[in-house]
Amino acid sequence: MRLCGKTLITMQTLNRTQEPEVKPFPDIELPEAEHITLANGLPLHILNSGTQDVLKVEFLFSAGALKQPARLVAAMTVEAIGEGTDKRTSKEISEQLDFYGSYMKTDSSRDTPALVLYTLSKHLDKTLPVIKDLLLNATYPENELKTYRENSKQKLISGEKKVSVMASKLIYEILYGKEHPFGYRVIPRDFDNVTRQQLLDFHHAHYRALDCDVIISGRVTPEVLDTFKKEFENIPAKVSSFNNNTPTPEPSADKKQVHEVPNVVQSAIKIARPLFSKTHPDYIPLQVLNTVFGGYFGSRLMTNIREDKGYTYGIGSGLVPLGTTGIWSIGSEVGVEVTKATLKEIYHEMKVLREEPVSQEELDTVRNYMLGVFLKDIDGPFALAEKYISLLKYGLDYSYYQRWIKTVKTITPAEIQALANKYLREEDFYELVVGKLG
Fold first, then answer.
1. Could you report the per-residue pLDDT of 233-288, keeping only the tens digit for each?
2. Measuring CA to CA, which residue among 10, 137, 45 is closest to residue 86?
3. Which residues pair with 43 in a beta bridge?
4. Number of H-type helices and E-type strands within the chain
5. Which fold has domain 34-232?
6. Which 3 state secondary structure label does DSSP give 182?
């Protein structure tokens, strides 16, 4: 207790020997997206939340690698869309967005590429016309493409000097096949093989045709919707459903591969198996098993291989849905002298999960971690939009998240062990080492 002027202030000492109270996870009803279809058929998905005068506008296209006529066409079409239109140069596009405190980014994901605008709500009438111009009139000028190609090739060559980058690319080639849309590995000459006309044709078929869904999050006022109607309602929209029908993968016959890299002190390890998309009934419970195994800092892999053995700074595992398929991947970088030992320990942890049930204490820790991350991931309108998009791409509704929460809360050690025996079998995984086996 101390006096401050005439005010008596009582100081409370924090008792650090006493654990804070653990409160139960609250019941959650996620704010659901509203849906408006413009007169031309263009769907708007609206998450009106937050008090700040900001907007995220995402044009999500059904124009990924599954629809491209040749390698890289889908990715280059969206990545180079800002290089100019018949009205604006790339510099003028950047300057106009910058003037209004806005910026644009692209996402060249394998399945659903996107064009994203971040802007103040009050300036949407000035910034949305720039995006509209790109969607309708991008010209992919040859002089700009030349610079884009050279920069992309140099970035590719520089990145592939890292064993981790090379391993991340090769594992998809191993699991899907060298010619599969999700499996082929980009090489420098691929950029030269894509022509300006291919980009224009693909842009016309999907971007100019508005073959997309629009997700608007933030402070969505009536004026915002009026601006969308004014800019887009009179343009014919194609709007096809997302194409998740993935061609059958053709994985490598060689399930254990070493790609030697001379003069390296670390090797990159990737161990992965084919899986399925998030529509599969086992996908949610597998997320719990994955978290126990390698999905957070306190996981089995981290505890063993980082904390106990000291082989690496980090190791983790994750589920990656792609179209109607997916993969389960484990990755790390380790010293070449402990590469074999690390592989042995990874398979050992698989074996333990198959043979021994997870303790209730460990499972409770994982539950609390996963539920806490979920709360963080729905904090704010942009985060809510990301959660909605992950449903939209797979034709799911909000009941998916209620099932997710229920599963995380109620899954038992016996159910986790059964999943481990079904999906964590060593013989189902493909093993890749880039560097040296040691």
1. 999 888 776 666 788 999 999 999 999 999 999 999 999 999 999 999 999 999 99
2. 137
3. 37
4. 15, 13
5. Cytochrome Bc1 Complex; Chain A, domain 1 (3.30.830)
6. coil
Phi-psi region of 29 (alpha: psi -120 to 50; beta: other; left: phi over 0): beta
In the chain, where the domains are located: 34-232, 256-435
Token match 């907007």: residue? 55
Token code pair at residue 270: 């990737």
pLDDT tens for residues 188-199? 999 999 999 999
How many residues in the chain?
Answer: 438
pLDDT tens sequence across 156-198: 999 989 999 999 999 999 999 999 999 999 999 999 999 999 9
Within 90-189, strands assigned E span 103-107, 114-120
Terminal-to-terminal C-alpha distance of the chain? 63
Predicted confidence (pLDDT) per residue in 335-369, tens digit: 999 999 999 999 999 999 999 999 999 999 999 99
User: What radius of gyration do the chain's Cα atoms show?
Assistant: 25
Rounded Cα distance, 58 and 2, in Å = 55
What the block records as the tokens of 131 is 């995006």
pLDDT (average), residues 396-424: 97
pLDDT (mean) for 117-126: 96
SS3 label, residue 6: coil
Q: Which residues contact 120 (CB under 8 A, 6 or more apart)?
A: 53, 54, 55, 100, 101, 102
Give how far the C-alpha of residue 86 lies from the chain's centroid of Cα atoms, to the nearest Å.
Answer: 33
Tokens encoding 171:
């594992």
Write the CB contacts of 158 (distance below 8 Å, at least 6 apart in sequence). none
Provide the CATH topology of domain 256-435: Cytochrome Bc1 Complex; Chain A, domain 1 (3.30.830)
